[in-house]
């Protein structure tokens, strides 16, 4: 699958992550197709750095993976006593004490949090396997377009672990508690058809149409004024945590800000 911004030099290209920027659209690509874009702490640090390097002009971020799979999840070497060279293995982390373990996991999670920033709309283009950490990385984005061969799976529980890379909150919000529990505990595959029907994915397309579908969506997302998109995203993201009356108040406040800005009376 070709990169939508392949003609531009990368802003970042390290540890299996490449960031390119083309005007208002940035593309973050996982670049280790030979290992199905497996994830490691080095990759998570690079993803965090990519978020910090985004220019202020960027409004849409596309996340994609090279090759046949979006991401097959955690590099299983991290679960072995020897771990990955240059990294602290999970076995060593477990021995570091509760505070040290908590701090390490919090650092890993940073790679998954910036995708929902209020000033951005993030779109995951997902093909093939999106397993475990790969599933959670797709869930970190605001929107998901999938190829018809996609296979989502949350395998952490099957390994005696829990999903801890911020994926549980969006998963429950998208498919509901009962289905989220069943998906996580069984570790089964979720196909493109089910992903769309349950709201996990916005659209499924043939694999060779994935790039063009993402480009079309990015263009549509850029059509509305940026400030209106930011306000709308904040309203929708906060809706689940508000009562109906609180949401009405939030709508009025947001609309007041927009009308004042349009009238040239901004604060």
Structure description:
- The chain has 267 residues and is of the alpha/beta class.
- The chain contains 10 helices and 10 strands.
- Helix 1 (41-53) crosses helix 3 and helix 5 (168-175) packs across helix 6.
- The longest helix is centred in the last third of the chain and has 19 residues, at 244-262.
- Residues 1-7 have low confidence and may be disordered.
Mean pLDDT equals 94
Low-confidence blocks of residues:
1-7
Apparent shape: globular
Going by helix content, strand content and strand pairing, the class is alpha/beta
* Main β-sheet description: 7 strands, mixed
Q: What is the share of helical residues?
A: 40-55%
Number of strands: 10
Cα distance spanning the termini:
45 Å
Q: How large, in whole angstroms, is the Cα Rg?
A: 19 Å
Any chance you could write out the topology, listing elements then pairs?
Layout: E1 12-14, E2 17-22, E3 25-30, H1 41-53, E4 60-65, H2 90-94, H3 98-113, E5 121-126, E6 129-131, H4 133-140, E7 143-147, E8 151-153, H5 168-175, H6 177-186, E9 190-191, H7 192-198, E10 203-205, H8 210-223, H9 226-239, H10 244-262
Parallel strand pairs: 3-4, 4-5, 5-7, 6-8, 7-10
Antiparallel strand pairs: 1-2, 2-3, 8-9
Helix pairs in contact: 1-3, 5-6, 9-10
């Amino acid at each position: 699958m070709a990169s939508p911004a392949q003609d531009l030099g990368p802003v970042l290209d390290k540890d299996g992550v490449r960031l390119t920027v083309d005007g208002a659209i940035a593309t973050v690509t996982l670049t280790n197709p030979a290992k199905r874009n497996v994830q490691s702490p080095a990759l998570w640090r690079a993803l965090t750095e990519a978020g910090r390097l985004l220019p202020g002009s960027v409004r849409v971020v596309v996340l994609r993976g090279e090759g046949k799979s979006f991401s097959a999840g955690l590099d299983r070497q991290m679960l072995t006593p020897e771990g990955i060279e240059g990294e602290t293995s999970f076995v060593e982390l477990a021995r570091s004490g509760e505070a040290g373990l908590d701090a390490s996991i919090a650092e890993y999670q940073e790679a998954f949090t910036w995708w929902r920033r209020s000033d951005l709309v993030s779109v995951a283009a997902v093909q093939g396997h999106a397993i475990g950490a790969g599933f959670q990385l797709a869930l970190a984005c605001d929107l998901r377009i999938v190829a018809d061969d996609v296979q989502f799976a949350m395998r952490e529980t099957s390994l005696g672990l829990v999903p801890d890379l911020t994926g549980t909150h969006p998963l429950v919000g998208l498919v509901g508690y009962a289905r989220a529990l069943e998906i996580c505990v069984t570790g089964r595959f979720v196909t493109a058809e089910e992903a769309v029907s349950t709201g996990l994915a916005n659209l499924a397309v043939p694999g060779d149409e994935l790039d063009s579908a993402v480009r079309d969506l990015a263009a549509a997302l850029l059509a509305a004024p940026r400030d209106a998109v930011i306000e709308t995203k904040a309203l929708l993201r906060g809706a689940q945590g508000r009562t109906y009356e609180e949401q009405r108040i939030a709508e009025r406040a947001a609309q007041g800000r927009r009308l004042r800005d349009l009238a040239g009376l901004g604060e």
